[in-house]
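Quick one from the shared queue. A colleague (R.T.) flagged L-lysine N6-monooxygenase MbtG as missing a structural entry in our internal table.

Convert sequence to structure tokens.
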Amino acid sequence: MSTPPPHDTDTPRDLVGIGVGPSNLSLAALAHPLARLDAVFYEQRPRFDWHPGLLIDGARVQVPFLADLVTLADPTSPWTFLNYLRTHHRLYPFYFAERFHTHRAEYDAYCRWVADNLPGLHFRHQVDAVRWNPEREVFEVDHTQLDADGEAEALGRTHTRNVVLGIGTEPHVPDPLRPLVDAPGVPVVHAADYLTHRDTLLAAGHITVVGSGQSGAEIFLDLLRHRPTGRERLHWIGRTHAFAPMEYSKLGLEHFTPDYTRYFHALPENVRDLLTDAQWQLHKGIDAGTLAAIHDELYRRTLDGDWPDTVLTPGVRVRTAGRIATTRIELHLEHIQQNTRTRLTTDAVVLATGHRERPLDRILAGLDPYIRRDNSERPRIDTHFRLLLDPAVTATGCHVYVQNAERHTHGVGAPDLGLTAWRSATILNTLTAEEPYPLPTRTAFTTFGLQQPHHRVPPARQAPTLTPLVDRR
């Protein structure tokens, strides 16, 4: 659906969502049954897609299938992953597969099914600005409808009481590697575009993968599987001290609960910043299964008595990078622990250097005078995912909510799919003031901090007493 339905432009909507990734798609799905909520969502892309360049065969989502768009807030919703399977007559195959973690391509297909069937989503609509209208006491959202070529087709303005930003992340390239991005004739590809350029990469003589997270591991494994034994010519480097597994213990995973999110939000700003860097292994480590698959593939290639032509070096950073002539690349490397330096010449580079939150400043430039910021000039965000704005705005009951842009205030779980439904439900409960989605008061066995509020959990209902059947024989 690309053209919004007729709407009285003088009547403000209850909610405008900007961006349709998993976060706002979850919000739209949970908002759908709320009949009195007038909501619309704009996305500049032509359709929903989720990291299409990383939908590598066999790659799995790192959260269980219950962490879909809605289940952890409303398992009875028609937009659950299980209902997606039922609709496609695939419940029994999924049941017998006995897989708690789905393929990444399947998660993308599930989200696309929701996006294709859910009303209120308008693709090819680019939001240009958000402003506050003090006379009418509403937000103004300016947007441009794009044609199939991405050119402006029509301009529009929507008035709304609430805005939810879900603009997601964008590929990150560290400064030392930026000179490579626009190097003509040299295959330098960010992991986000890996599948699009895989054939070109595989044709290169020597390939270097930069980045020691999950994407780097999956790409290294995929390249390894597509290169002949003895002629792999692959080099994998990363800044971390090891190709380290992701923290996946049961209690470790409780950092991705509402309990921990509330605890983190209440910490002082400087403590939050220290924790954000220190907790890298909770979200930047590598799935143990992927590490095992890499080792298995490397081991298989030693069966003829030789070693594969691969180099795996952690603890290395790229100091500078540039081209040699027009077809080769030179990386200046530094080993962090040894304090040694060397040069690496390669024919192609994959930048598995992660993603970063998209800056909110462009869209929110018109609201800048109203935004309250922290000591690092980042927007302050309250426990209900609302930007702290000037009281002249919030006193009217109008708010700007953010999704997957609040790691500095809400912690490591901000981008995690497992908290998506809870966050969406929290936003809708706050926005409607009616609690359409009752949420649990306690979600972790761990007590984070000495002054955590005591959550009273109601006792389980006692089962009714059963009367034995009388044997009348």
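The chain has a mean pLDDT of 91.
DSSP finds 13 helices and 18 strands in the chain.
Added to the table.
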